[in-house]
Automatic annotation (TrEMBL):
L-homoserine binds at E193. Keywords: Amino-acid biosynthesis, Membrane, Methionine biosynthesis, NADP, Oxidoreductase, Sodium, Threonine biosynthesis, Transmembrane, Transmembrane helix. The chain crosses the membrane at residues 7-26. The keyword Lyase does not apply. This is Homoserine dehydrogenase. Pfam families: ACT, Homoserine_dh, NAD_binding_3. InterPro entries: ACT-like_dom_sf, ACT_dom, Asp/hSer_DH_NAD-bd, HDH, HDH_cat, HDH_CS, NAD(P)-bd_dom_sf. It catalyses: L-homoserine + NADP(+) = L-aspartate 4-semialdehyde + NADPH + H(+). One of its GO terms (molecular function) is NADP binding.
Length: 435
């Protein structure tokens, strides 16, 4: 007599862009997934505010508006949280873990802020807490860091980890599109968060780099530890200058670990050399670049946002958890933050910089400006003067590596000079030849 195929039931919280994608993937690839896993994965209930949206995706799926119907259902083994935002997603996941259910989420807001509590709950109940989709959408990066690269000492993890802003910067660079127009496009495509200020302001990327740094360096990096700047001050002038000087502008998350000095984590627009592997990562694509010993350099590339790529990562976690349930080994890889390393203060982070300013277009001005840089120990690599605006000239400088502290002092001294009308923008440069 043939053995009856096992069935693993999941409860889905939220069926929007990503949740809807999960419903579609589990239906479209049902046979293939069942065969690979050796069990059927069935969505038993969907928590939804608008059941009609779920019915439009799959009319057979039961819906509920009560979380208790899912977290108290003994037949549900995996709760998949795809509602977004911090509350009540956190409380719902806590209830699921306390109820002994495995949890899969794409929610970086919750993982970055409450990861520790959730890991502790998962460990206490010997269940999985998986969040591959929370960083870089469809790209596998959490499991590779925790498992495939587990033998490495990682010194640097740097990436384009926000699809919305990469899409926007690409369109602004290649098609000279306007900021507001291109943001609307990214929202329509389902890339942006429900509140897109998290994308544009760099906070979404900050959550992701905090999560990546915590895993890579085995030490918890909180959101407050990340220095954050968004893309809202990037103008077409900066994009043009970057191009002329051999760079592209990308919103990067950058985390480094220096022996004896601690860990740093930051998110800001960055001028990146055109020959860097991350420089050609465009549109909604994300990439995470890792330097470690013994692996050397490794880069992970793919779609960082959008319905189906993100659903791919969520379903990968559902499958991983299902396999662990079948093998009786849930909770196998839990929290990896077993150290408490010091954070390097942002003022001590050293980076080359691009500074664009408007100055009086008259003889002797350059000597005054150069001495302000010199007095603050900022060495200059390149100076460009191309444009005049009435009595003003636009000057661009690229510095060698400078600490944030020295940069702020120099910027302060420059802005007090009568000949400097305005510092228009300062952008960090990632260029190993200038460090
Ligand atoms: N979109 C993307 O490309 C990516 C998203 N993520 C993350 O995935 C998660 C989901 O994002 P996304 O699918 O884009 O978001 P959506 O806003 O498209 O979907 C969220 C869904 O959750 C439902 N929901 C929200 N709050 C509640 C609640 N209290 N009770 C019941 N249902 C609720 C919403 O219902 P209703 O429709 O009624 O409002 C909606 O259907 C977020 O954490 C996001 O950061 C991660 C990677 C990529
Ligand atoms: N809003 C996010 C979605 C995925 O995390 C992004 O644009 O990357
Ligand atoms: Na991912």
């Amino acid at each position: 007599m043939a053995n009856k195929m096992k069935q693993i039931n999941i409860g889905l919280l939220g069926a929007g862009t990503v949740g809807g994608g999960v419903i579609l993937v589990l239906n479209q690839n049902r046979d293939l997934i069942t065969e690979r896993v050796g069990a059927e994965i069935q969505i038993k209930k969907v928590l939804a505010r608008h059941p009609e949206k779920v019915r439009a995706l799959d009319a057979s799926l039961p819906t509920t508006d009560k979380i208790e119907d899912i977290v108290n259902d003994p037949d549900i083994s995996i709760v998949v949280e795809l509602m977004g935002r911090e509350h009540p997603a956190l409380e719902y996941m806590e209830a699921a873990l306390r109820g002994g259910k495995n949890v899969v989420t794409a929610n970086k807001d919750v993982v970055a802020t409450h990861g520790k509590e959730l890991f502790e709950l998962a460990a206490a109940h010997h269940v999985d807490f998986l969040f591959e989709a929370a960083v870089a959408g469809g790209i596998p990066i959490i499991r590779p860091l925790k498992e495939s690269l587990a033998a490495n000492r990682i010194s640097k993890i740097m990436g384009i980890i926000n699809g919305t802003t990469n899409y926007m910067l690409t369109k602004m660079t290649q098609e000279h599109m306007d900021f507001a127009e291109v943001l609307k496009e990214a929202q329509d495509k389902g890339y942006a968060e429900s509140d897109p200020t998290a994308d544009v302001g760099g906070f979404d990327a900050a959550r992701k780099i905090a999560i990546l740094a915590s895993i890579a360096f085995n030490s918890r990096v909180g959101l407050d530890d990340v220095y954050v700047e968004g893309i809202d001050k990037i103008s077409s002038r900066d994009i043009e200058y970057a191009d002329e000087l051999g760079y592209v502008i990308k919103l990067l998350g950058i985390a480094k670990q220096k022996e004896g000095k601690g860990v740093s984590a930051r998110v800001h627009p960055t001028m990146l050399r055109k020959d860097h592997p991350l420089a050609t990562v465009n549109d909604v694509f994300n990439a995470v670049y890792v330097e470690g010993q013994p692996v050397g350099e490794a880069m992970f590339f793919g779609r960082g946002a959008g319905r189906m790529p993100t659903a791919s990562a969520v379903c990968g976690d559902i499958i991983e958890s299902t396999r662990n349930i079948l093998a009786g080994c849930t909770g196998r890889v839990g929290c990896t933050c077993y150290e408490a390393k010091p954070m390097l203060p942002p003022e001590e982070i050293i980076s080359p910089c691009y500074i664009r300013m408007l100055v009086e277009d008259q003889p002797g001005v350059w000597a005054t400006i150069a001495s302000a840089f010199g007095e603050n120990k900022v060495s200059l690599k390149t100076v460009v003067q191309k444009r005049s605006l009435g009595t003003l000239a636009e000057i661009v400088v690229i510095t060698y590596g400078v600490s944030e502290f020295a940069l702020r002092k120099a910027a302060d001294a420059l802005s007090k000079l009568a000949v400097v009308a305005r510092i228009c923008n300062i952008i960090r440069v990632e260029d190993s030849t200038l460090e």
